[in-house]
Fold each of these.
Amino acid sequence: MLRGRVRGAKPILLLAHIDVVEANRSDWIRDPFKLTEEAGWYYGRGVSDDKAMAAIFTDSLIRYRREGLRPRRDIKLALTCGEETSDIFNSVECLLKTRPQVLDAAFALNEGALGELDQNGTPVVLEVQAGEKVYQDYSLDASDPGGHSARPTKNNPIVRLSAALARLGAYNFPVSLTKTTRAYFEAEAWLMPPDIAADMRSVLKDPPDEAAVERLWAINPSWNATLRTTCVVTQISGGHAVNALPQSAHANVNCRALPGLALADVQNELVRVLADPDITVAPSGEAGIQVPIPPLTPKIMDPIRQVAAAMWPGVAIVPIMWTGGTDGRYLNAKDVPTYGLSGLFHDAEGPHHHGLNERIRVKSLLDGRRFLYEVVKLYANDLGNFSAPRY
C-alpha cells in the first residue's frame, strides 16, 4: 500500500490474480512456464491472464514510492490467487469474508478489458469493462437400470441425453442489450466496414435483426456472447462397459447469463429446451453471483480519456461487458465498484487466453505500463465521488 495524504479518503484498489490455468508442455511450441520473447512478443502461460497487469501494478507502486509520490488517496495492491479455480478456493472471496477491510476501496481496477489494434498495429479501440456475465455450471443426468447390450431398449440414457443436447445446441437465448452492450455496439459500428456496421446497427433495433446476429456471430463469437445468455455443453460421460446398456449418462453445461437474468430462469429454460422430464438439471460448482453493473461516471472516464488522448490520439474508448468471469464479481457484490482497464492492445488473433501459446505484444505491455501508471495517479489525487450518477 502507498499511503495517501487525506485521512478517511477511501483508497484505490489495484487487483490482479497471479494464478494461471493449466498448460501441457507437449502441446505448446514453447515452454508454457518459461517467459519467452520472440519477434516482438512475450509467450508463456499467464502472460496475458493476468500476470501482465500484476507486473504493471507492482512496478507502478515501486515507481511511485521511489519518486516520493504522496497521493491524496491510498493506493492498495492485491495480488490474489484462485481466480482460475474459484469453485475450489478464491482468495478474494475468502478475504471479503474474513478480512473485508483489506479490499475495501472507493473502486477497484481489474482485468477484463483490452484494446484493439488495426491491421497496421495502430490502436483503434480502448476497452473499459463495466459488468460481466454470470457464470453457472449445470449437471445434466439421465439414468436407466441398464442390461445386456444384446437386448437394447428405447430408454438408452446416452441416446436420450444426446438428443436433448442436440436440441440445446440448436437453441439460442434471446438477444438482450444492457446500457453497456448497447453503447459498445454503437461505438464499434463507427469503426467497422460498412457491411459489419450495418449489421451492428441492425441488432440495436427493436426487435433485433436475427439474420444480422447470425452474420456477426460467424465473424466474432464474442459478439454473439455479448448479445445474449449462452449455455454450451463442455463435458460428457456415460456407460460402464462396452457390452452393457448404459445405466447413466452425464453432461456439464456451462452457462454465462446476462446481468439481471435470474439463474432460476436460466435453469427453467434449460429444462424446457431439453424437453425430457427424465433428465435432471441441477446447478453444480460455485453458485453464480448476480451483481450490479458499476456506473461509468465522468470521474471514472475522464482520466482514461485524458491519458489515452495523449498516448493514442483518436483511439475510440468503448465500454464493454465482459463475457467471461473475473474476481470483480465478488467486489461488486460487496459495493466496491470494479472496472476492467488495462491499456493492453492485441491484434485480431488475440492473446490466446486459456489456449495454446498465450502471448502479449512487448510494445503493448510497455504501453499498458505507462497508461496504468498515469491513470492511477490521476485517480489517487481525486477526492471526488466515483459512484455519482451514471455516465
Amino acid sequence: MNTYDAAYDLARAIKESDEMKRLTAAAEIIKGDEEAKKMVKEYIMAQMKADYAKLAGQKEDEETYKHLQDLAVLISNNGNAREYLQAFIRWNQVAADLQKIVSDAMAQGMDVLGLDKP
C-alpha cells in the first residue's frame, strides 16, 4: 500500500464525512449571520483562553467561567450559532481522534529512543 495514496484517501474521506458536511453547511449559514458568528467566535476564543490557562497550571478563573456560561446561554438561544458550535465541537472530536490514530502509527519504532521520557 502506498502511504501517499492512503493519505489522499483519508483526505477524501474527511471531506465526505457527515461531520465535515455538517460543519461546512453550518459555516455557510453563519457567514450571513454576523451576530451568530460574533457569538461563536467569542465563545471559542474564551474557551481557548480558559484551556490554555488550565494547561499552564493556572487556577480556574471564576470570571472566565461565568463569561463562558453567559455566552453558552446566548448561543443556545440562536439556532445558527448553536448549530455551528455543535458541528465545530463534533468535528474537533473527530479531528483529535484521527490525529491520535495517525500519530500513534507514525511513532511506532521511535519509542526505542526514549524521547517521551524525561
